[in-house]
Design a protein that fits this description.
Blueprint lengths: L4 E8 L2 H5 L6 E7 L3 E9 L6 H21 L7 H20 L4 H8 L2 E9 L2 E7 L2 E5 L2 E5 L28 E5 L4 E5 L19 H11 L8 E8 L10
Antiparallel strand pairs: 1-10, 2-3, 3-4, 4-5, 5-8, 6-7, 6-9, 9-10
Helix pairs in contact: 2-3
Length: about 240
């Protein structure tokens, strides 16, 4: 089953970021092995000066941890619950190593990001999220909207007297996926009305090309947009090589 999954990723910087010459604050990581297909997209907080730092490090860390947990035969349904506190500890370790003069500002400007991830193994599949984003399983679309107050996982690093506990999430929100043909996970900058157009994209580089066209010619995506698309295919030999 895992050999019949085509995994692709694409990213585009938002037009509002281009205007103010800001970095793309989205990050993603994607791994496809004999035992698993794992993808994660992270969206750095727009108010953070360097939130792409945390989102990039976290995306790579999450992939590595998922692969390790799978190798350790951790039950698929349990992986998000094990992963969540590990990420918190990892971010705490980053603070200790960095030794910032102002801990609060370091967290606010470097470590605030959302997470949407997917894990597929021979056992099945699971999608997990913290904060806002987009999840589409075939024709079922879930736009996670937290009213511009995402439950950033790094809020656990901020003292309770500084931030309201009502915005702190204590575990990933999860969704089991069994019978599916296409899974899309994306940051909230991707526009849901464009999802149907992804069906026509077959070439490995066509996703990024399409994002470029949407942005450059149609002037879409005010915010950074990053997505991972997973398709079940009959055979890799049938993929277009154009």
């Amino acid at each position: 089953m895992l050999n019949s999954i085509r995994a692709r990723a694409g990213q585009i910087i938002g037009r509002s970021h281009m205007t103010r010459q800001a970095n793309c604050q989205d990050s993603y990581a994607l791994a496809q092995t004999e035992s698993a297909v794992i993808g994660v997209v992270c969206d750095g907080c727009g108010e953070g000066h360097h939130s792409e730092v945390g989102s990039t490090l976290a995306a790579k860390y999450i992939i590595a941890q998922c692969l390790q947990l799978i190798d350790e035969k951790c039950d698929l349904a349990e992986i998000p619950a094990v992963l969540y506190p590990r990420i918190v500890d990892y971010l705490e370790d980053l603070i200790k190593v960095s030794m910032p003069i102002n801990r609060l500002q370091f967290v606010q400007h470097h470590l605030l990001f959302t997470i949407v991830g997917v894990i597929l193994t021979q056992e099945g599949g699971i999608i997990f999220s913290s904060g806002d984003g987009l999840i589409a399983v075939d024709d079922t679309v879930n736009s996670i909207n937290q009213n511009n107050k995402p439950a950033y996982i790094a809020y656990h690093l901020i003292r309770e007297n500084v931030i309201s506990t009502s915005v702190i999430q204590h575990d990933f929100t999860t969704q089991i996926v069994d019978d599916w043909q296409r899974i899309v996970i994306a940051t909230d900058g991707f526009e849901t009305q464009l999802l149907p157009e992804l069906r026509a994209l077959q070439h490995p580089r066509s996703l990024q090309r399409k994002l470029n066209v949407w942005s450059n010619q149609q002037r879409r995506f005010q915010d950074d947009a990053t997505l991972i698309v997973l398709d079940k295919v009959e055979s890799r030999d049938n993929e277009s090589t154009d």
